[in-house]
């Protein structure tokens, strides 16, 4: 796909209701019955889908939006597959009303989206852009008008480039600017938004952005990556405190979390170290007010601890109502003397990251639904004070459209298996409140460009037509029934 092939600006060919109806009749086999072995989810369970601003909105130079690090990164030759950018993406900025009607046709009760910081504060700090707030104002009203609860994420990786020019997340000042921006959004939307998610996946933002250079801003500076971790968490704490003081009803933080599994016997220390780097480096400061000792030792060897100031951890450790869980697969490791550190996990010397003999998605990620059950139970055991919500779970497969149909049985099997694992975890005591499938739409998949399709809705990037995949119709019926039929 080329950028010139993505210039259509007209309305979607069908509205959301027609799209969902295409080629499908409503399931008539009745509600799930627990006595028959069917899986029934708790009353009030949240069923949603998730997206992110840079991945779907487009309109990167409209209505006063400033440049983000992803605008600059994606326009840098060699950084994104095929030279793709998010300039147009799914054109959601112009088609949001159709997309909301599509969500309503799927019966979704909630929608997790992200707010683009450079739309709201184009220079990262200073004057607020009213036109940027107007877009999200319209989006929230459209959602509520269709009975869909908005779950905005305030940071999903699109840092204003002006702040990166001043040091980005490696600079302490960025945390304070983030809190100011969060308050600006709350002032406009706080009368209608109940739950606010501060950050999405700070591990990715810090280590893929500042250590490996795979993501924007494309830096390869391990000490900067550890400083970015701390300042992202500090920004979370400052924003959470400010939002709570301003009257926010619920606060959440979304983390990419992965159970770490010993691929070979005798690898317990290796697994514990990677767990500290991947999971507890974020869980423990946010929910315990401290860093794991293993992480502090590694951090000290990569630039020192001078960026952690007195009172920072108290600021980071804000009361949370929900912990957002993004899960895709476990991490498999084994002890391997002499193995160099994985660049994404500084401090992982002597550890080999293994590829298990399991089916994989189009991303090459192992499919392991039981890992999600294990993770949810671990979180409820170790951090019982916070409720859980799955803010992302899904899979990319090589989907092809056949007229009005997109046959994607692999995704249905993936979602079915993971939802059964979710139900098992709930029955075993996990305090899980809801599930957001990733993603509503096929979209700009970061450094992979448009080559990987995660959506339950197919996007034709030439016409921008949306086609609900068979997985979307399957998910619609799960939502309607609030459960899974036995044997499906």
Automatic annotation (TrEMBL):
Protein name: Beta-glucosidase
Catalytic function, reaction form: Hydrolysis of terminal, non-reducing beta-D-glucosyl residues with release of beta-D-glucose
One of the record's GO cellular component terms: cytosol
GO biological process: cellulose catabolic process
Active site: 201 (proton donor), 392 (nucleophile)
Organism of provenance: Thermobispora bispora (strain ATCC 19993 / DSM 43833 / CBS 139.67 / JCM 10125 / KCTC 9307 / NBRC 14880 / R51)
Family of this protein: Belongs to the glycosyl hydrolase 1 family.
Pfam families attached to this UniProt entry: Glyco_hydro_1
Broad EC category: hydrolase
């Amino acid at each position: 796909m080329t950028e010139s092939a993505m210039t259509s600006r007209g309305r979607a060919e069908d509205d959301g209701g027609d799209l969902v109806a295409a080629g499908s009749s409503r399931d008539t086999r009745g509600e799930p019955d627990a006595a028959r072995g069917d899986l029934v989810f708790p009353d009030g369970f949240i069923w949603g889908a998730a997206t992110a601003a840079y991945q779907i909105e487009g309109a990167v130079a409209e209505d006063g939006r400033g440049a983000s690090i992803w605008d600059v990164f994606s326009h840098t030759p060699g950084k994104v597959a095929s030279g793709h950018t998010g300039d147009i993406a799914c054109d959601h900025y112009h088609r949001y009303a159709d997309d909301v009607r599509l969500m309503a046709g799927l019966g979704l009760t909630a929608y997790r989206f992200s707010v683009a910081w450079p739309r709201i504060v184009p220079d990262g700090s200073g004057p607020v852009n009213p036109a940027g707030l107007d877009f999200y104002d319209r989006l929230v009203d459209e959602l509520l008008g269709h009975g869909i609860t908005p779950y905005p994420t305030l940071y999903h990786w699109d840092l204003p480039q002006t702040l990166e020019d001043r040091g980005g997340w490696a600079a302490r000042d960025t945390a304070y600017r983030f809190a100011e921006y969060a308050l600006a959004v709350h002032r406009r939307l706080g009368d209608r938004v109940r739950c606010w998610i501060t950050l999405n996946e700070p591990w990715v933002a810090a280590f893929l952005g500042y250590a490996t250079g795979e993501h924007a801003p494309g830096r390869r500076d391990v000490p900067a990556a550890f400083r970015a971790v701390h300042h992202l968490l500090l920004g979370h704490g400052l924003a959470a405190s400010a939002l709570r003081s301003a009257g926010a009803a619920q606060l959440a933080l979304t983390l990419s979390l992965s159970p770490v599994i010993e691929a070979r016997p005798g690898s317990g220390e290796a697994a514990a170290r990677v767990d500290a780097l991947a999971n507890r480096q974020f869980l423990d400061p946010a929910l315990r007010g401290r860093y794991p000792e293993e992480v502090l030792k590694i951090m000290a060897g990569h630039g020192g601890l001078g960026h952690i100031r007195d009172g920072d951890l108290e600021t980071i450790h804000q009361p949370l109502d929900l912990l957002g869980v993004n899960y895709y697969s476990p991490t498999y490791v084994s002890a391997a003397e002499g193995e160099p550190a994985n660049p994404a996990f500084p401090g992982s010397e002597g550890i080999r990251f293994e590829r298990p003999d399991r089916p994989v998605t189009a991303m090459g990620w192992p499919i392991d639904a039981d890992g999600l059950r294990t993770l949810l139970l671990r979180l409820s055991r170790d951090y019982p004070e916070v409720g859980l919500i799955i803010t992302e779970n899904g899979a990319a497969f090589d989907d092809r459209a056949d007229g009005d149909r997109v046959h994607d049985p692999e995704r249905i099997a993936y979602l079915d298996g993971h939802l059964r694992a979710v139900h098992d975890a709930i029955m075993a005591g996990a305090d899980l409140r809801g599930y957001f499938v990733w993603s509503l739409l096929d979209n700009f998949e970061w450094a992979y460009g448009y080559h990987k399709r995660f959506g339950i809705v197919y996007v034709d990037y030439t016409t921008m037509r949306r086609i609900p995949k068979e997985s979307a119709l399957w998910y619609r019926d799960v939502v309607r029934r609030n459960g899974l039929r036995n044997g499906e």
